[in-house]
Amino acid sequence: MQDAYPDLDDVQQIEEPAIAIPVSVQVDGPVVVHQLPSRTGPVTTEILSTTPVKVLSADPKRRRAVICGTGDWYVSHINSASGGGVWPEVVPLVIEHGDAVYAYVVGMGASTLTIVTEYWAD
């Protein structure tokens, strides 16, 4: 006759972790991959002026960032008011690299950036 009250270990069926042994792998042919969801996704805002400000620091853990402004703004990977490209208002800019990003407003107008950042790791 079976025990009417099994042990907690029997119910949970927790297995002991195996010892991790490094193994060299060489891929030969196509490999199916699945993109995992981002670990975190903080949202920030930045009010721009005519002086370049760092809106994203360099970070190798950043998966991507989406930036949208309320007015036209310049975007650059260097801290310089003489470089970069003009990005139009309310058009999202998707950045999928880990470099620093600087921004400043076009002309004497005003622009507020909304920055949504997604990270691969904590």
Keywords:
single chain; 1 helix; about 120 residues; Jelly Rolls; elongated; mainly beta; 4-stranded antiparallel sheet
Summarize the structure.
By secondary structure, the protein is mainly beta. The chain is built from 1 helix and 8 strands; from the N terminus they run αββββββββ.
Question: What does this protein structure show overall?
Answer:
By secondary structure, the protein is mainly beta. The protein has a domain at 43-119: Sandwich (Jelly Rolls). The protein is 4% helix and 34% strand. The protein contains one helix and eight strands, in the order H-E-E-E-E-E-E-E-E. The protein has one helix spanning 8-12; strands at 43-48, 53-56, 62-69, 73-76, 85-87, 93-95, 101-105, 111-119. The strands form two sheets. The protein has a four-stranded antiparallel beta sheet, with no helix packed on it. The chain has a four-stranded antiparallel beta sheet with strand order 2-7-4-5, with no helix packed on it. The radius of gyration is 24 Å and the shape is elongated. The model has no long low-confidence stretch (mean pLDDT 87).
Order of helices and strands: HEEEEEEEE
What's the tally of helices? 1
Structural class estimated from helices and strands: mainly beta
CATH architecture of the domain at 43-119: Sandwich
Topology of helices and strands:
Blueprint lengths: L7 H5 L30 E6 L4 E4 L5 E8 L3 E4 L8 E3 L5 E3 L5 E5 L5 E9 L3
Antiparallel strand pairs: 1-8, 2-7, 3-6, 3-8, 4-5, 4-7
